[in-house]
Each structure stands twice: as structure tokens, then as C-alpha cells.
Design brief:
16 helices; MetI-like fold; about 0% strand; single chain; mainly alpha; about 325 residues
Length: about 325
């Protein structure tokens, strides 16, 4: 009985077979190098060195004030005198819970707002042709080199006095100092250049055939953006969301200038917890670990997107 085409084995020949063999050999060599004993030992050493400061901070948070002032954290191996009094003192602070709520109220909108604007801007730079697009994109990229410190005074003046052009009030400003809105706008402005640049790189990796097929089917820019671009760039968006959330959560500079009074975040509360002359600095390690809980939850919740976002665009095919 003769073999039908379905029964015949599929084989590669010529250039395609050579390329496939080369790829497999490269993958095997790379795998052997990454899983070698030397690479494993080096990874363990790096992980240990990276963990030592955090471990020292954690030990310090459990030591009494007298020991923190007098000796280093490594002396705990000789004198095992640990206590949770520092955590109790920090948790007893009346402003701690309110400042945690403020940090969440600041970090979430300050992460979502620039991501929404940056995603739309990245799509426009990648797939919409308009006059001056290249020059405008270079300008956005150049804004990344502007130090934040240089923009704080003009931004504070804008928020407090408003914006006037030829005597006409374009922006009224904020009558009450230390509102959430000021911090949201400030963090969004500082995050937009990098967010647009990174998302633009991922959006441009989408095959042109996919976009052209959607246009042939009658899809407009809105449908292409929401149904094609956004789902394909979710890993990149989640990756930058983690970075932005952590940056806003740990920020102290912007908080000291724009977030005061009832809008004070956890970083400002911890800074004020040390006292006027730093006499209560021993409470900072305990406060730092308390403030670390929410960012850790965010990171672990988006970890799979974070890894995919870092790898997205690194390979093709």
C-alpha cells in the first residue's frame, strides 16, 4: 500500500534545516553556560550581597534603642536581644494609618494617569502620521534628561498662582495647599517622558500586517488601540506600572513640596517620626518595613507581567 502525503514524514532540507540546527545548538550552549556550577555560585553570591543590607535593616528594626545607638546590627549574633517595641511605637502613631491611606490614594492615580496618556501617545507616535512627529518624539525623549529638581519651583509657582496669558486666566491654580491633585499632576508630568518612550518601543513591535488588516476591516484608531494595541502591550504596561507605583510610593522629595497636611504620604510621616533632631531615628527601620508591605503585594501580584514585559520586544519570531 503506497503512502499518502499525510503519512509521509515532514523533513527540513537546505538553508532552513541548517538555520534550525544552528538555533538549537546556540540554545543548548547558552543553557549549559547559564546552568553551570560557576554561574550558580555567582548568582548565590550576588543574591547574598544584595540581601545583606535588607537583612541588617530588619535586624535593626527589632533591636532596642540603646543597642541601636551603641552597636551595629551584626552584634545581634553575640547578644540576641530582640524586641517588637519599635513596631509597637510606630503603629501607635495616630498619623500612620492616615498616611498609608494617603499613599495609596496618591500612588494609584499617579500610576494610572500617566500610563493612560502615555499609551495613547505611544500609539500616536507609532501608527499615526502627522506633521512634526519625529521632532516632537525627540523632544519628549529629551525631557528625560531634565532633573526633577529644576522643575519643582516653576511647578509650585504654577500650582499656587495659576497660569495667565495676556491677562487671561488659563489655569486658576489650587487655593488649598497640599491636595492630592497637585501630587497627581506632578508625578504624572515627571513619569510621562519615560513612559511614552518605553511604551512606544513596545507598540512599534506590533506587526504592521495586524494594523493594516484591522484598517482594511474598517477599524478606526480607537478600535485598533483598545482591541489590538492595549491587549498586546499589557505586559509592558504592567511592567512600567510597577516601576511607577514603587517610585511614587517611595518618593519623599515631591511629597515634601506638594503633599502636606492631610495629604501627607507615609514617607513624609516616617521622616517626621524621627523628630526634629533625629532623636527617634531608631524607629525608621520598623516604619520602613511597615511601609514596604503594600509595594510587595503589588509586585507579587504583577510579577508575571513584570517578567514578560522585560522580555517583550527582545526577540522576534
Amino acid at each position: 500500500m503506497s503512502a499518502t502525503p499525510v503519512d509521509l514524514p515532514v523533513t527540513r532540507s537546505g538553508k532552513g534545516a541548517i538555520e534550525a540546527t544552528d538555533v538549537r545548538s546556540v540554545v543548548k550552549r547558552t543553557k549549559r553556560r547559564l546552568t553551570s556550577r560557576g554561574a550558580t555560585i555567582a548568582s548565590l553570591i550576588i543574591a547574598l550581597l544584595w540581601t545583606i543590607p535588607t537583612f541588617g535593616l530588619f535586624v535593626t528594626s527589632l533591636r532596642p534603642q540603646s543597642e541601636v545607638v551603641r552597636t551595629g546590627w551584626w552584634s545581634v549574633f553575640v547578644n540576641w536581644d530582640l524586641t517588637i517595641e519599635n513596631y509597637q511605637t510606630v503603629l501607635a502613631n495616630d498619623n500612620l494609618l492616615a498616611s498609608l491611606v494617603n499613599s495609596v490614594s496618591i500612588a494609584l492615580p499617579a500610576t494610572v494617569i500617566p500610563l493612560v496618556i502615555a499609551a495613547m501617545a505611544a500609539y500616536a507616535f507609532a501608527w499615526i502620521d502627522f506633521t512634526g512627529k519625529d521632532f516632537l518624539f525627540v523632544g519628549v525623549f529629551a525631557l528625560q534628561i531634565v532633573p526633577i529638581q529644576m522643575t519643582l519651583v516653576p511647578l509650585l509657582s504654577l500650582f499656587s498662582r495659576g497660569l495667565y496669558i495676556n491677562g487671561y486666566e488659563v489655569f486658576e491654580g489650587f487655593k488649598d495647599a497640599g491636595t492630592y491633585t497637585q501630587v497627581w499632576i506632578a508625578h504624572s508630568i515627571f513619569a510621562l517622558p519615560l513612559a511614552i518612550f518605553l511604551l512606544h518601543n513596545f507598540v512599534t513591535e506590533i506587526p504592521r500586517e495586524v494594523i493594516e488588516a484591522a484598517r482594511v476591516d474598517g477599524a478606526g484608531h480607537g478600535q485598533i488601540f483598545f482591541r489590538i494595541v492595549v491587549p498586546l502591550t499589557v505586559p509592558a504596561i504592567a511592567s512600567f506600572a510597577i516601576f511607577q507605583f514603587l517610585w511614587v510610593w517611595n518618593d519623599l522629595l515631591v511629597a515634601l513640596i506638594f503633599a502636606s497636611g492631610k495629604a501627607s504620604p507615609i514617607t513624609r510621616t516616617l521622616a517626621e517620626l524621627t523628630g526634629e533632631f533625629g532623636q527617634n531615628a531608631y524607629l525608621l527601620p520598623a516604619g520602613a518595613f511597615i511601609a514596604m508591605l503594600i509595594p510587595l503585594l503589588v509586585f507579587f501580584a504583577l510579577q508575571r507581567f513584570f517578567v514578560r514585559g522585560l522580555l517583550a520586544g527582545s526577540t522576534k519570531g
